Amino acid sequence: MAIKVDFIASGTVTSPQGFHAGATYAGIKERADDVLDLGILFSEAPCVAAALFTTNRIKAAPLVLCQQRLATGRAWALVANSGCANAFTGGEGLADAAEMADLAAKNIGVSPENVLVASTGVIGQPLPMELIRAGIGQIALTRDGGHELARAIMTTDTLAKEAAVVVTAGEGGFIIGGVAKGSGMIHPELATLLCFLTTDAAVDIDLLKLALRRAADVSFNMVSIDGDTSPNDMVLVMANGRAGNKVISADSQEANAFQQGLDQVCIYLAKAVAGDGEGASKLIEVTVSGAISVAEARLAARTVVSSPLVKAAVHGSDPNWGRIIAAVGRSGAEVVESKLDLYLGDICLVRGGKSLPFSKPSAVELLSRGEVPIGLQLNLGTAEATAWGCDLSEEYVTINSQYTT
Amino acid sequence: MAIKVDFIASGTVTSPQGFHAGATYAGIKERADDVLDLGILFSEAPCVAAALFTTNRIKAAPLVLCQQRLATGRAWALVANSGCANAFTGGEGLADAAEMADLAAKNIGVSPENVLVASTGVIGQPLPMELIRAGIGQIALTRDGGHELARAIMTTDTLAKEAAVVVTAGEGGFIIGGVAKGSGMIHPELATLLCFLTTDAAVDIDLLKLALRRAADVSFNMVSIDGDTSPNDMVLVMANGRAGNKVISADSQEANAFQQGLDQVCIYLAKAVAGDGEGASKLIEVTVSGAISVAEARLAARTVVSSPLVKAAVHGSDPNWGRIIAAVGRSGAEVVESKLDLYLGDICLVRGGKSLPFSKPSAVELLSRGEVPIGLQLNLGTAEATAWGCDLSEEYVTINSQYTT
To answer: CB 3.0 to 4.6 Å from B231: which of A94, A265, B60, B391, for a disulfide?
Structure first.
């Protein structure tokens, strides 16, 4: 079957048919121009839904609620806020998350158990429920409201992250869209941020779960900003079937097309998260090939892209490539010094474990670009993986040393 | 047996009897005031010697040489340089390390196979052997030369790290001394820096190995600066028996005294390494108690002290304690939200999983000190561990974005 995946201009989480969203400024975040901090995503029809959650032992109240409600594999809507994580807030936090879902349910006319909740922001502070009660009625849902939802979940993000693709599979087709927020506490441990994905394809719950895990493995699980993970990390996908296609299951001819589309949206959002890391000025892309296994390739790529010393060197456009070697050496992946090749873009710095003379100005020029590609060929096997991250800047420190003060 | 451990004023690696050291400026590092970059440590009598090495798969040439030579459990001298790591330098690097030992052996009149080698500095560059050949003859060994050796192994360290203790055990006694360098690429994976320890006690090789591992476990293995490990990490201990005591073995009454003394020297040096981390302005001490096992207490303490977000918050004296909770939650240690207590010095911020009101000015004042104590009581068991690290500053980034340029 011929498969085509095309990005939609200005695509977002409401690009798939039947999804509506909207947001408001409830006053949870401090006011700045154009700030939104409370949003709703709603599907005209009930959805098959699956999610990935943080591996942190401290789980925010909205995650606990979502885990319970997603046991059915179904959901109809989502309410999300930024500015307060509702994490480490005990029983009151759980009650607040449930009330937030109730308020949204009333607003959109569905029953509360079909409404999911997500929060992001400062940990350990109670949700300002008065503001949420007052704000939720202000939210107007529209078919174009995905753009507002994308902004409503931003914290230190400097750009809204949203995308959608049209997937054509033989005669049929469907749309997949999504929004995400990232910026800090970003590290590959299952899910690593807030991300809401939607599709108008009809998808079987088992395939939806499998496809989400696979897509996360090549996207969000390959992104690292600072090695921290948050109690609020969640990646959610909702499928409402409005495209009118036959339900796609693991055996369907369209399963592969659905996977490709979902992968593309997730990789796009993951790279947007990496490139917009706190204080980031550059996206770093590390590709490790020739590894003994995919697991080792992933480990090696993620370790290099996470290394504070590699990140700082890239920030200063300093071709201090020994740090890349040191990072891959400690990654846990099998590495043989005498077999290693190292590339910066198409400049070969090391071949067979021997450093080659290279033009320093060319290397500095390459490191000064907005996207810095690092390639490691281990020459031990055939497995390959790519990870994304960002440079470490003085600004990262400045942002994070003054977050609550 | 009564055991006393007392620090010696201006103690160093040559404080134990029979040890001599010296250093010179060979020109490997760029010149600044008072720079030394090549040093020798020498014992009048042959030593029983043991070492811990990096777990990085890329091992620097001097480490490979030391691993071979320490198979005998004996050594007589050490030559060390800073400014070039002689790491990722292949067969030439091994030949250079061996020649460096030969040159030192000739200088001090012992046979080359009794001489160990250590290097630290930029990875992937060949040792400038011409400079080393010319420099090594300039080194004059003295009983007070430990202070020079301490300076000769510094890279971005701002302070020399050295200490010595007198251990009194019953009627007898002996001295243990050491020097270390740290600053960057510091993370708990076996050894994590260069550290040379000496003692004039006579110690059995099996006890020496065991005591070194135990001492590292409560000191160097509990220090994190940036999560990176280097190909050059090595902790070495040499015992020459000049104190004239009976050989201490695992069964001796003095074994415990030796362990206490070694622990004290290692903890002192480890804290000095942590407090002098690249760009650091504060030492952070994280104590986790009430853990299910010592392994989990260690994991939790190290994860909190390594968290970039915790480190940045401490830098800004921002009492954003949710980040401490998030870090312990992702550590892998068993944590139950409703049982957790969190202290900043003696200020209790969280008790039984509930945040308490606290004086923000007091918390900010405490975070502004040179040593910031963080306490986590998990209330699940009886195990405890302490880890040390430093704040993350804009200066760390500046230093590391311009290291080779």
So the answer is: B60
